[in-house]
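Follow-up to my post from last week.
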Amino acid sequence: MPETSAIVLEPANDFLSFVQSHTGENITSCYQCGKCSAGCPTAYAMDITPRQVMRGIQLGLKDEILDSSAIWLCVSCQTCSLRCPREIDIAKIMESLRLFSQAEGRPPAQREIAVFYSAFLQQVRLFGRLHEVGLAITYNLLSMHFFNNIKRLPALLTRGKLKLVPQRTKGSSEVRQIEARVKELERKSS
Amino acid sequence: MAPAESGSGQPVTERIYSYYPGCSLHATAREYDVSTRLVCQKLGVELRELEDWVCCGASAAHSTDHLLSLALPAHTLKQAEEKGLPLAVPCAMCYSRLRFALHELQNKDTLDLVSRTIGKELSTAVTVKHMLQVLADEDIPLPIVKPLSGLKVACYYGCLLVRPPEVVGFDDAEDPQTMDHLMERLGAEAIDWGLKTNCCGAGVAFARLDVVLKLSHRILSLAQKSGADCVAVACPMCHANLDMYQKDMTVKLGWKTELPVLYFTQLMGLSLGFSPKELLLDKHITNPLPMLREKKLA
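User reply:
Got it. Predicted complex:
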């Protein structure tokens, strides 16, 4: 009898090769067991599940993946990566997909989540640290949900949990320097 | 490290850490900072807060720019390296970002690149410990004056403290016991339950409160069904999600009772003889004082 040789799936499309080379993860090895989706706390709210995201990459369905709400609803809890029997770092792939989607200037399928991240970083840029009150105000303005969290103010204020004036440290100028160098290095490498 | 004399005359090893509280502990999670400092002082653990520390970038940085998500924690790692002390971190999110950076900096090219972004030569010779690891050390004697007897605690670890294991190097990733053992040493009963490492919804509370309500409600419900009097946490984000939105859960999900959510350092503080006021136990949105009074702990 002739020896049976294993069937090897080679990267068959540009998107798959791109994601694999940028993440260093072997996505072809995913055999669709669904353990990632079973353990994913936010899969119920996603348009496609983490398992479908992996399959979509294998099939080169770039638009479906980069425009999905799934990549934004992933909260990086790392459960999928911990449990994947093929040792694929799915959380890392989801994170990279968010970055690829933004790099292409695609409108995020969960606009508010993207707005939250950008409001957060704006605070860090301004003060070196996150100023939570500033984050809330910036988020409400940018997301146009002007009254978001307003009802929580009395309870938080009476308990002294809100710092109204931001702490400005020497660190804020260092953050801006770091960010400028990050931008410069990324420009050179691209 | 030089041996020092403890109050009981037993020689103990000097424990000195650089301290990186992180942004939340200076604002909404003030009670975690205050209780951590009190407990450390009592146990002879010296904390020296890094000066002019900056934010770790949290999930916002790693969802926006990979290099930035390494450079921000690297700035803190460099500060800690210069102090020559191990770094103690109470926030699980900060801990995760610092450990992730440390993990990726093992790669020489990454180390060079990140060194250039922070404008300083980095090394990876820094020890980063979560505050729970620092305080659960069984070599530190606990001078307990008020054992937490009769108190059933659901120890909740969340995600970032335990995953991914090769990065965080903390206990078992599916069934950690560090906090459970600590609670039992304080005289409490750590209940056996199944959601100690499930996600509370993390940072999407602003954008998708419905997701946080659903996930956090499931955690609180199981803790309560399993007989817990309270949930103990080691992360300001987990605390906010579990403590702050219980009234919303009542309206949206029919959550009928309240379940206090405390920092593990507050429970340590109680057993070490600090008052609820000193530990800022009156600052939570879900008031734990009636339950603690019923248990004769407040």
